[in-house]
Amino acid sequence: MKPEILEVQAQQLKFIFELKKQSSCSVQMINKTNHHVAFKIKTTNPKKYCVRPNAGVIDPNASCEFSVTMQAPKVAPPDMISKDKFLIQSTVVPEGTEEEDVTSNMFVKADGKIVDEKKLKVILIPPPESPINEPLKLVDSNASREVKDDINTSPAKVAESLEVPSESLEVTRKIEEPVKPKMEESSKRKDAARKIEEHVKPEMEESSKRKDAARKIEEPVKPKMEESSKRKDAERKIEEPSQVYAKRNEEFVQIDNTEELKLAEDVEAIRSKVKELESKLTEAKATILHLTEEKRSVAQEKHFLQGELDLVRSKRHRAQVGFPLLYVFMVGLVSLYLGYLFSCTPN
Fold it and tell me: Which UniProt keywords apply (predicted)?
């Protein structure tokens, strides 16, 4: 047995049910422990009910009250029975816990934590003036007959039985005078209808006799008809599988034809794609050959230019080896001039 943490005064939530009107009720909870207790209220239909407060903390040996307001209903439930329920969860919390600290994680049953749960059902009560609460008044058959007899009597007789004054009787007679011809006409019509019915009755009896004779004739024929219908049903059952088989064969043939057409179309599309790819491949091969020829010509030109460059470099190197003639000639002239100068000077 789990220890009871909260004592709930009401086991049911009773609402006075009225269309397009709100209804509310309140429930008191008592903390029977010497600890602080947190509570949380849940419902299966939160859009329909408003709970204030829906969570909080109750001090030790103290009580708390919450109110539940049902929104204005638009349609009455069948048999005035509600399937809505409420759940009150409670657990012990440390001192100093406030209402803002209460969360749904506090009421998770784990690690031996004690969580007390109370379930409340919703009961719908019709209003005091509702016709549901009024007992049905049974009318005696004799009384109803008396009432009908009173209705069939003329207003004058009713007035006499009620001791109405003579002036009012004259007024009722004046009212009756224009109504009497209509009543007589209606009685005449009824008599005519009765006479017609009397004439028609023999014909109706004859027709009924004819029907009975036809039924008697049909009775021995019925087994034969049933046998023939059974044979026809058996033939139909035999023919049905063959027809179904033929239909299935036709469907399969049609499916095969459609599949063959689809395959032929797919093959033609693949062939066209292959032709396009072959044309593209030929074009690519031609471009590759052209590029390879250009590459070869470029390589040959490069090789030729490299040879010419090597020749130019070798000639330049040869020209730079030894002294040039102009340089030798100039050195000779300078040396002759210097010799002449030295020879002209006295010793």
Answer: Coiled coil, Membrane, Transmembrane, Transmembrane helix
How far is residue 4 from each of residues 31, 41, 96, 185, 236, measured CA to CA in Å? Answer: 9, 16, 22, 84, 75
Question: H or E stretch including 103?
Answer: none
Bridge partners, 26 (sequence order): 67
Q: Which two tokens stand for residue 44?
A: 């299966």
User: What distance in Å separates the CA atoms of residue 332 and residue 338, rounded to the nearest whole number?
Assistant: 10
Q: For the chain, how big is the Rg over CA atoms in Å?
A: 61
Contacts of residue 8, Cβ cutoff 8 Å, sequence gap at least 6: 27, 28, 29, 88, 118, 120
Tell me how far apart the alpha carbons of residues 249 and 121 are, in angstroms, rounded to a whole number.
64
Asked whether 23 and 16 are in contact (CB, 8 A), the reply is yes
Instruction: Give DSSP secondary structure letters for 145-174.
Output: HHHHHHHHS-HHHHHHHTT--HHHHHHHHH
Each residue's pLDDT tens digit, 295-316: 998 998 888 999 889 888 887 7
Distance CA 222, CA 202 (A): 29
Q: Let me know: does 36 contact 50? Beta carbons within 8 Å.
A: no
Report the candidate in 155, 161, 123, 98 with the shortest Cα–Cα distance to residue 27.
Answer: 123
What is the domain class of 6-125 according to CATH? mainly beta
Q: Specify the pLDDT at position 22.
A: 94
1 pLDDT above the threshold of 60: no
